[in-house]
Amino acid sequence: MTTVPTITLNSGHAIPQLGFGVFLVPPAEAEEAVSTSLEVGYRHIDTAAIYGNEEGVGAAIAKSGIPRDELFVTTKLWNDRQAGEAPHDAIRESLEKLGLDYVDLYLTHWPTPEKDTYSNAWQKLIEIRDAGLARSIGVSNHLPEHLDRLVKDTGEVPAVDQIELHPALQQRDVLEWGAANGMHIESWGPLGQGKYPLFENPAVVAAAEAHGVTPAQAVIRWHLDRGFIVFPKSTHRERMEQNFDVFGFELTADEIAAIDALDAGDGSGRVGAHPLELN
Ligand code: NAD
Q1: SS in 3 state form for 17-29?
Q2: Cβ-based burial of 150 (10 A; exposed 0-12, middle 13-18, buried ≥19)
Q3: Closest residue CA from atom 44 of ligand 1
Q4: pLDDT value, residue 114
Q5: Is the predicted pLDDT of residue 23 greater than 90, yes or no?
Q6: Whose CA is nearest to atom 16 of ligand 1?
Q7: How, if at all, do strands 6-8 and 14-16 pair?
Q8: Catalytic site positions
Q9: So what's the architecture of 6-193 in CATH?
Q10: Is any atom of ligand 1 closer than 6 Å to the C-beta of 13?
């Protein structure tokens, strides 16, 4: 059985560096997809209330018989529940759907800065963690200005920021903030969501050929070698297996540098929403 390396978060809890994401996995298919991923060996599942598939994730976990402490489950607070006491209701609903007593990681999904409720949401996540309903807490899609505000308001640094991160969009300002403050980075859309020809890029193809792996495996390995936490999505068993089979090789410093150099630098590599524009 493959042992996935873990990263210790600022909570003291360890997260498997490679997991399985279920964005856009329809509710009816989530149970089967997560069951397959658990058979393949994944033990870290990344879902969110807005994905609408927490029940399927929970059903797969329950059926698997895998001890709770061998699993790492992340879910996220949706944007319309950041105000007032709503986060407390939201986590209880998520736990009910997941069939769990606690999640390993609970994240606020987007800062939605115009609403100006993300700092309140962060304070509620601290309470949720202190109440034992989440082992670790963090954020998603937060820019340095949002992270600064959270620390100013609460003194607490998120365990992770889950951001869009793939070779064409490397968000170096967020990476630097994380490195300076002991916050780890989770890469969402790690394969660029298939929205640009990443797998045909010469730097990616060269790294893949040098190690006898696929371009997708080379890119996942780049995330791991850069120290990011990553959870590519696929509903096909073969791809789930391929994406999990990334521990038999490491990229060289030159191969990593060649992929690092693919960052568009000006944010134009973004394939998803901009955090300042999603409100
Ligand atoms: P991804 O970059 O993982 O791309 C997924 C797509 O890549 C699949 O649909 C498939 O078409 C393709 N793919 C997967 N494995 C492949 C392989 N081996 N070979 C060729 N193609 C392959 O994008 P994602 O699903 O958006 O991101 C991963 C996870 O990140 C999500 O499932 C979710 O958990 C999380 N996420 C979070 C946010 C957020 O706002 N916090 C947003 C999007 C995704």
Answers
A1: CECEECCCCCHHH
A2: buried
A3: 188
A4: 96
A5: yes
A6: 239
A7: antiparallel
A8: 51
A9: Alpha-Beta Barrel (3.20)
A10: no
